Amino acid sequence: MTVTEDAAAVAPAKEVGQARKRKEDARLITGKTTWTDNMVLPGMLHLAVVRSPVAHAKIRNVDVSAAKEAPNVVAVFTGADFAEEQGSLPCAWPVTPDMVNPGHPSIAVEEVNHVGEAVAVIVARSKVAAQDAVELVDVDYDLLPVVLDMEEAVKDGADLCHDHIESNSSYHFVFDSAQVGTGGDVDQAFSDAEVVVSRRLIQQRLIPAFMEPRSVVVQPQGDNYTMWSATQIPHILRVMAAMVTGIPEHKLRVVAPDVGGGFGGKLQVIPEEILCLMIARRLGKPVKWTETRSESLMTAHHGRDQIQYIDIAADREGHIKGLKVRLLADMGAYLRLITPGVPVLGGLMYPAIYKVPAFRFECDGVFTNKVPTDAYRGAGRPEATFAIERIMDELAVELGMDPLELRRKNWINADEFPYTTVAGLQYDSGDYEMATQQALDLLGYDELREEQRRRRESNDPVQLGIGFSTFTEMCGLAPSRVLGSLSFGAGGWESASIRMLPTGKVEVVTGSTPHGQGHETAWSQIVADQLGVPFEDVEVLHGDTAISSKGLDTYGSRSLVVGGTAVVKAAEKVVAKARKIAAHLLEASEDDLEFSGGKFSVRGTPGTGLGIQEIALAIFAAHNYPEGIEPSIDAEATFDPENFSFPHGTHICAMEVDTETGFVKIRKYACVDDVGAIVNPLIVEGQIHGGLAQGIAQALYEEAVYDADGNLTTGTFVDYLVPSANDLPHFDTGNTVHEATSNPLGAKGVGEAGCIASTPAVVNAALDAVRHLGVSDIRMPLTPERVWRAIHQGGDGGDRATAGINAYGGASTETTTGESTDASSLGGDR
Amino acid sequence: MTHISVRVDGASYTDDVEPRTLLVHYLREQLGKVGTVVGCDTSNCGACTVHLDGEAVKSCTVFAVQADGSEVTTIEGIAPQGGLHPMQKAFHEMHGLQCGFCTPGMIMASIDLVNDNPNPSDDEVREGIEGNLCRCTGYQNIVRAVRQAAAEMNPAGGQA
């Protein structure tokens, strides 16, 4: 017998790394959970919002007299009622010192700037009474010109989205590697280059489309207020709502109960949250607002919506010499919480996994009369990844080179980490070759290439293409100092505390607020290992500022990397505090104690030992503990990362394109992701699947379309195509593991990976199938109509036939609907 | 107002409802059956799916008065006391849910699917639940869950 064998026999299996089934499921699969809209309070009143049917107008008159007389209507408010107290919804990210922010009233007072903007609010005893009265409000509008097309909007003399500011430009942001000192002179690199490829790419507008519609309940109690909201960010919301409404922060409690998805779409301080607070304060009664799906699609913030002009310079052998990116980023009508920051955050990721010697990124934030854009899964990074992975394929075509060979020539090798990119980011770890090899094997690459060749030769009406995306992303938002240098209005730390209850059970309080990610399970696994207590003995509390007083919530693949690390740090403090008690009770020196499997024992004295759960009871009784310390082993920790983490992976899509109908079908999708150390493989795989679905949906299905008057024509799930099970393929997934170096868990973040990586793989695959037919771009989403037009008529497939205009086509009007215009064709070297 | 009598999850209710009241609003607001949720207003998402006399229906597309004299089963009424229906168990075991908002409707639609087709293939499951939208899972684990539950619900059926 050896000591080692003995220890192994008794040591419980580590929880971290196990595919634990989720604790959260019990209430979700039985219909016993608490969504905000389930809340019913005595005397609660219901709100319905009267919304602008026009995109840009002066409000001449709002007649609410008929609505006020309607049965069961308690009050009707207009913008004039709140003009003095509503302030502006917050924008926390002034990306340049001279950024123009027009201000964002929660309810319009004099002017509406997008369809769906609130102009009046009905307060009634029931939801149906409130909704009925919406019809009775009569608003007179003096119509103003509607600004929709970014390329038109930035021209001299363009119509203005807001007439109180000078232009439609919010900001002009520039990152230049020569100026910053992270790389060479990009203009020089281009003038010296042997090959330059330029493209104009469209990142269409998307809608996050979380399944749970947004809902807000506010209960006033004297001068205290409790707000329940279907939000990703109860902590940020509390601070911001206090600042906007003047309710002191300590008088406002915000609760995010179970929240049905967010994807960035609930990373917001919404007009209705402020309206609910102001109306509850005015009436002294609890109020509830729950949106309809149509309201959600029309007024919850959208994502993406950029025009990307990207130029890449290389030598004939395929070595990248320089990269230039210029963006027009659609802000919509207003700046919301991080609207201006999304494209700028993405700006750092254009160099991706490649060794780029010189880089310039420029971005114009442009106002249009549409609902504001803001975070949507990936927030800037999917856009960047799409553009660079598309242009790499275009460069490969230009050079007559295999797209993977071109990538290999330029990517950072495994032995070059840590690697500081031309954008100034220090990538932590990875092995792009290893992930790529595994993904090729998963796909069955060689056979599919062979089939592609056969179909080409036989002129098969169904052609096959293979597309790559070798991506990285920036996760674990964020080092506070970095956020400060980017002028972000907050830090990026996260908080956790651990409470040891008398019975030995453990409460873990996290500041990172989940909405489907499984924190309760993963955090339990972490704490079970750290404290040596059973997984079942851990309860994770979150989402209520009265319970979890400090936190920065969930977005940017930060929860495990930053919030999970705070949990580890808090657990370490618990053990350190318990060690002092254990030493006292065991009458031993602290230095002689070892802690393993939840037990302190005196080194070399078998049989002695005191469990941390027993210590919890002993310190609760507090009859016998060392002098000079407090009778508690509870602990709190705040973790501020020193660096981001950089997950990476290789995604490969094999796509069938029916050249006769334009119908595209994913034949096979394989991806290998490196998300660092994995706490729960079940949850990680689920996050990858969900991300893939959304990234593929951008490529194939989803597009928020506005008509020439600024009406959202994709305002229901009939028109906005969130894919069903039948629209998506089976995913073959795998992992490599290169641990993050910036946190003790070694975790890198997984929430956004699938969404960031997949879109260009899908589009590259479709193009690979039909490039021999003269097609070099197809605009997303790849509807059969667009694909057919690109094959048979040339161009990029043009606008959707149902759209009068979608702001990317320049001169498109009702009469040119569906036509590919000059402005919608490829830019650059064609 | 119209008078209706309906059995929901094994209990009998009689109520006066407005003729325009949708079944889902009756369930949620009058009976407190908030396990069934509303995800859209065009009958696309399926989050509100319940069983009406044993058939899956989107309860936002049925008036409460249409349920008069009928038996309604919601997510709250499918499991034996203290236990789980095989479909609930399979969703848990296969990680067929994340945020869980679509889950009640997805489970109700899936039970109906398996009742109609005791041994569905992957493709048949995907077709069978295409009236229910999920934004979190990408559906792959839902497909696994439905097939596992089908095997448990119909042990003689075997797997395709």
From TrEMBL, chain A:
TM stretches of this protein: none
Keyword hit for Oxidoreductase: yes
Pfam families: Ald_Xan_dh_C, MoCoBD_1, MoCoBD_2
Disordered: annotated span: 1-23, 792-830
Source species, domain of life: Bacteria
Keywords: Molybdenum, Oxidoreductase
Residue stretches of biased makeup (Low complexity): 809-830
Residue runs in coiled coils: none
Gene3D superfamilies recorded: Aldehyde oxidase/xanthine dehydrogenase, a/b hammerhead, Aldehyde oxidase/xanthine dehydrogenase, molybdopterin binding domain
Residue span, Aldehyde oxidase/xanthine dehydrogenase a/b hammerhead domain: 30-145
Entry protein name: Molybdopterin-dependent oxidoreductase
TrEMBL record, chain B:
Domain called 2Fe-2S ferredoxin-type: residue spans: 2-78
Pfam families membership: Fer2, Fer2_2
Regions annotated as coiled coil: none
Keyword Oxidoreductase: yes
Keywords, alphabetical: 2Fe-2S, Iron, Iron-sulfur, Metal-binding, Oxidoreductase
Top-level taxon in the UniProt lineage: Bacteria
PROSITE patterns, A to Z: 2FE2S_FER_2 (PS51085)
InterPro entries reported in the protein's UniProt record: 2Fe-2S-bd, 2Fe-2S-bd_dom_sf, 2Fe-2S_ferredoxin-like_sf, 2Fe-2S_ferredoxin-type, Beta-grasp_dom_sf, Diverse_Oxidoreductases
Signal peptide positions (record): none
Annotated protein name in UniProt: (2Fe-2S)-binding protein
Annotated source species: Blastococcus jejuensis
